[in-house]
Amino acid sequence: MSRLLVCPPDFFGIEYEINPWMRLSNRVDHARAVAQWQTLMGIFEKDLGVVLERLSPVPGLPDLVFTANAGLVVGRTAVVSRFRYPERQREETHVEQWFREQGYEVVRIEAGLHFEGAGDLLGFSDTWFGGYRQRSDIGVYPILSERFHREIIPLELVDSRFYHLDTCFCPLSGGEILYYPAAFDRYGRQVIAERIPDELRFAVPDEEAITFACNAVCVGKHVVLPAGCPTTQVWLHNRGHVTHPVLLDEFIKSGGAAKCLTLALD
Ligand code: ARG
Fold first, then answer.
1. Domain that holds residue 158
2. Structural domains counted in the chain
């Protein structure tokens, strides 16, 4: 059974601009955002049998909905994020308190190093991939690698639209990945190609990359992904996955979609 941490969008909105998707002039339609979030949660709970843990929303923290960035959870240990931008740093104490209340052993990264949690660190059971440069710093990965005894392969993110690894890279349960090659440099693309065999890699086309095709959540053979990614869905079907497209355009205004709205708790 999967458990995911989520945060209702009561105070979600565009209140600052910290990535190229966010425009203060592009206001969120609150009712629509709430409806889209509810639909997404319904798929997790009713269709996939996922257990949802809810973090209380906080006024003035519009991006708290993106719980992928709360931190990284490994067993009963939680590494709390250290956000790059001051606008999101106030989320840290709120999240840390939640982890403590739930009985997690809380790990804090030293001040001065940035780490944006499961938004940038994802992978398979033994090998993880760590996105860096836009938000997280490469220097956190040797520390986390040693702490959790996992190999972490750093991947530089070179396109500001794909500022977290989970916007351009998605590991799936069959050992496959969805990814957007242009978000990585040549070295990164080469490392990915060496690690993941050709037939297990799907390079999403430009128009689906900007529809956040890679920002998908995989639960067993099910893949929950933003609506509007038909070729990605066909590839997933051919690999035996069941797809669940959800309209999430209100969240894409902030640069996030399905995966950003969840944090895996196990
Ligand atoms: N507006 C948020 C930010 O720029 C979106 C975060 C999306 N989260 C993610 N895991 N990609 O920080």
1. 3-264
2. 1
